[in-house]
Structures are given as structure tokens and as C-alpha cells.
């Protein structure tokens, strides 16, 4: 089966979004590639189950990947995003408070600035105590102007921000990185009530980090990404992303049910078909599998995630859930966030049925499925309006290694070159998001092309500047 693969330039181990994105970049540059996947199906954690006409994601995370990022990844320009309603809905245990898009955007941007300012104050104080000379202060005016442009775009587009990702202003001094909860405890100048109203649950949902122990710098970037982009779901399920990435690869590029047991700079060893020689190897698996193939690779901690999918009568019937299509953030109970997936993306449900997706984080995510279902049902009754007896649990998916943690200090672009001829990519080398996986795959492809002496297809920076 792998005779064709034995003459390839690059073997990619793992057919998740990062590995498939790297394969698209490399084949587009004329490099021959073989993608070997140990599972029977591609996709990694971007899996969508089909059950009685429902399409049920394993991950359940809303995406905030910008349209510009999708355009930079070959094949994803055809992806159809199904956006959430602008703004947020926060449930305090009794009722839903609707937070408009302008308010939530301004609040997120102000909180991002406040986090960065608080970290820079800490850095300057530490420097003074150590007797060091501090660096040049950041250009606060440029930072404020960039945020004002984002808010103006939001207002012009009736609550929808232009999809772009902002970088810190040129010349800005890097902020010290510390745990998010420590930065929040310093009570910097957050907008009125944002600290308690929606900032903590929003950060917990964006980062899958309910204890907020991760990087404050990563939190600031996530808030800017939320404010300048838009939350959405891929039409048809999360599997649409790897499916589109693999669709245009040359026939025979992706081989499933092939388990790689060892890697080197000149090839890989497979359990089923022996050695496969090549010029370079890219390990694009999850962090734990990558560490088994690359001893010494640091394995991060992980945030466990459990996703529950419930169905009920169609909208408008007895016990039917509301038509709310915004992301709902409870401030108490085991539910981290929930949304009406069937209303946002009707292709995920059969006719006449609704689909509610709920995500539980932290310690509660490890509860047995039956126990967790009983625990979340009363909370879902209050949030969505359906009655417990009318709601049916379709499936539960628990992943203890769902999201790589980003403890402070966190490097959002960890090296992808292990040796010349041996590379690694994945969300654990970047940020624990789909955008981080795509970005990591692109960086790995660029490193391979550079070592091959070939020009890269693009010279665009990995972080997109804010639009004027």
C-alpha cells in the first residue's frame, strides 16, 4: 500500500487540522506528501458523529477563527460559517441577561487593555525592585486607536465586528505574563460590571479554563479575537474542517489505519507496513502521542471537556427550547456554556427536532455521564425553557485531554523544528484553538520549505494586523 509513499518528500504523522493544513501548504509548493493516520478516520479531535439524522461534535467549542485566517489556509475558503447571534447571553441562575454586541465588544477590548496594562505595571515594578532599566513604554495611543476602529466597524455593521486579528502596536514593550486570576485579582480598570457580569465566564468559555489559571497574555489575545471576530460553527459539524483540507490533496496522500511507531530525519517505522523513507518527517499528532515519538518533548497539562447533546421537540412546541442563538454563559452550576446548535446550524438536525449542545469543564467534566446529565438538566430547564421530561440525551463525549493548557509564561509560537528533517506541529505548539492548530501547521510547512531551499507560498506574518 505504501510503495507510492516511500518516494515522498515529507511524511506527516497525524491527519488532524494541523497536519492536513501543513499538507495543503506543502503540496501547493510542489512537495510530495504522505499523511499517515493511526485511526480509521481523519480529523483528530474535530470529529462529528452521525446519529439518527443528527450531527454531533465531539469538541463543542464555538470558533473565532477569522475569515482572513481561513483564506490563508488552502481549502478552507469554501467553509460555510454559521454565526452565533452578536453579543452574549449571561444566565445568573434565574434569568438571562442579554449583553449587546457593542457592549460586549467594548467590554472585551477594555478588559484586554486592562490586562496588558496591569501586567506591564507588574513588570515595571519588578524591574524597579531589581534595579533594572525598564524598556520603552508602549504606544498607548496607537492601541486605543486600533480598538476604536474595531468599535466603529462594529457599529457600522449593526453589531458585527470585522473579522480580523490585532497585533500589539509597533514598538510596544512586551508585558509580563502571569495567571489570569492573579491579573483579575489586581482589579485593573475594567469597564463597569464587566468583571463580574461576563468577563470571567467568557474567558472560561474561550479558553476552556474555568479556574483561569492560564496565561494573562493569552487571555488578552482571546478577548481581542472575540471582539474583532465573530463566534461561529462550521456548517455540517466540526468535521467539515479536516474534510475540506483533505478533499483537494492528491489521491492517495492520506492513509488511515497506519500506526507510526518511530520517527527519524530520514523516515518513519510503521506497525503495519514497516519503514517508509522520506526527506523529512512532521509529527502532527496530539501532545501525548507526539512525546512518545519525540522523547523529551514537553507535554502540557490539559483541560478536560465533556460535551452533552440533547434534543427536544421542535421550536414552538410543548417543552421546546427557546430560539436564542447567542452563546449562553451561566454564572453558576456545572454548565460552562450552552447554545442551540440546531438553531444556529439547521443542517445538524433532522426535520422537526431541536439540538442543544452543552459543555462542562473542570472537575465536573469527569462525572459519569448519567450523573452529569441529571446534574445539568435543571440548569438547562432554567436556561432554555424546555422541561426535563421532554429532553432526550443523545450522546455524551468526555475528553480528558481536550485542550492543552497555556500556563504563564506561555509562548504562543513554540518551535516547530526539532532537527533539520524532523518537525512537530499542533495546537500544543501554539494556542489551544483551531486557529492555533492551523497556524502551527503553516509554520511547520514554512520551516520545511526553508530547509528544502524552496520559496514559501506566502510571506504573510502569522499574526494578522488590525484593519484600518
Automatic annotation (TrEMBL):
Residues 116-130, 137-158 have a biased composition (Basic and acidic residues). One of its GO terms (molecular function) is oxidoreductase activity. Residues 18-449 form the Amine oxidase domain. Residues 76-176 are annotated as: Disordered. InterPro entries: Amino_oxidase, FAD/NAD-bd_sf. This is FAD-dependent oxidoreductase.
Amino acid at each position: 500500500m505504501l510503495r507510492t509513499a516511500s518516494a515522498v518528500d515529507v511524511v506527516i504523522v497525524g491527519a488532524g487540522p494541523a497536519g492536513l493544513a501543513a499538507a495543503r501548504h506543502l503540496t501547493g509548493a510542489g512537495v510530495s506528501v504522505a499523511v499517515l493516520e493511526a485511526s480509521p478516520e481523519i480529523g483528530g479531535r474535530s470529529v462529528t458523529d452521525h446519529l439518527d439524522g443528527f450531527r454531533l461534535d465531539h469538541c463543542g467549542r464555538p470558533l473565532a477563527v477569522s475569515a482572513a485566517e481561513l483564506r490563508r489556509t488552502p481549502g478552507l475558503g469554501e467553509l460555510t460559517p454559521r454565526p452565533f447571534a452578536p453579543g452574549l447571553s449571561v444566565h445568573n441562575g434565574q434569568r438571562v441577561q442579554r449583553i449587546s454586541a457593542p457592549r460586549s465588544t467594548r467590554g472585551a477590548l477594555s478588559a484586554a487593555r486592562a490586562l496588558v496594562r496591569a501586567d506591564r505595571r507588574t513588570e515595571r515594578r519588578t524591574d524597579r525592585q531589581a534595579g533594572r532599566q525598564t524598556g520603552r513604554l508602549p504606544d498607548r495611543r496607537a492601541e486605543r486607536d486600533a480598538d476604536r476602529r474595531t468599535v466603529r466597524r462594529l457599529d457600522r455593521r449593526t453589531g458585527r465586528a470585522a473579522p480580523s486579528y490585532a497585533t500589539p502596536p509597533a514598538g510596544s514593550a512586551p508585558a509580563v505574563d502571569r495567571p489570569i486570576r492573579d491579573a483579575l485579582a489586581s482589579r485593573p480598570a475594567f469597564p463597569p460590571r464587566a468583571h463580574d457580569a461576563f468577563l470571567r465566564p467568557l474567558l472560561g468559555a474561550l479558553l476552556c479554563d474555568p479556574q483561569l489559571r492560564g496565561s494573562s497574555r493569552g487571555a488578552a489575545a482571546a478577548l481581542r479575537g472575540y471582539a474583532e471576530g465573530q463566534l461561529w460553527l462550521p456548517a455540517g459539524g466540526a468535521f467539515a474542517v479536516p474534510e475540506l483540507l483533505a478533499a483537494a490533496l492528491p489521491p492517495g496522500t492520506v492513509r488511515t489505519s497506519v500506526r507510526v511507531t518511530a520517527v527519524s530525519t530520514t523516515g518513519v517505522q510503521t506497525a503495519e507496513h514497516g519503514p517508509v523513507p522520506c526527506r523529512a518527517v512532521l509529527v502532527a499528532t496530539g501532545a501525548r502521542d507526539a512525546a512518545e515519538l519525540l522523547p523529551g518533548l514537553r507535554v502540557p497539562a490539559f483541560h478536560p471537556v465533556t460535551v452533552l447533546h440533547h434534543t427536544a421537540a421542535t421550536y414552538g412546541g410543548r417543552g421546546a427550547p427557546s430560539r436564542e442563538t447567542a452563546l449562553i454563559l451561566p454564572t453558576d452550576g456545572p454548565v460552562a456554556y450552552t447554545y442551540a446548535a440546531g438553531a444556529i446550524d439547521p443542517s445538524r438536525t433532522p426535520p422537526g427536532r431541536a439540538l442543544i449542545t452543552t459543555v462542562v469543564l473542570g472537575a465536573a467534566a469527569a462525572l459519569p455521564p448519567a450523573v452529569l446529565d441529571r446534574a445539568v438538566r435543571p440548569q438547562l430547564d432554567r436556561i432554555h425553557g424546555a422541561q426535563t421530561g421532554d429532553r432526550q440525551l443523545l450522546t455524551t463525549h468526555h475528553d480528558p485531554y481536550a485542550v492543552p493548557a497555556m500556563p504563564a509564561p506561555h509562548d504562543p509560537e513554540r518551535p516547530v523544528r526539532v532537527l533539520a528533517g524532523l518537525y512537530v506541529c499542533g495546537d500544543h505548539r501554539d494556542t489551544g484553538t483551531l486557529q492555533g492548530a492551523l497556524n502551527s501547521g503553516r509554520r511547520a510547512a514554512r520551516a520545511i520549505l526553508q530547509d528544502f531551499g524552496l520559496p514559501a507560498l506566502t510571506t504573510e506574518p502569522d499574526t494578522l494586523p488590525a484593519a484600518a
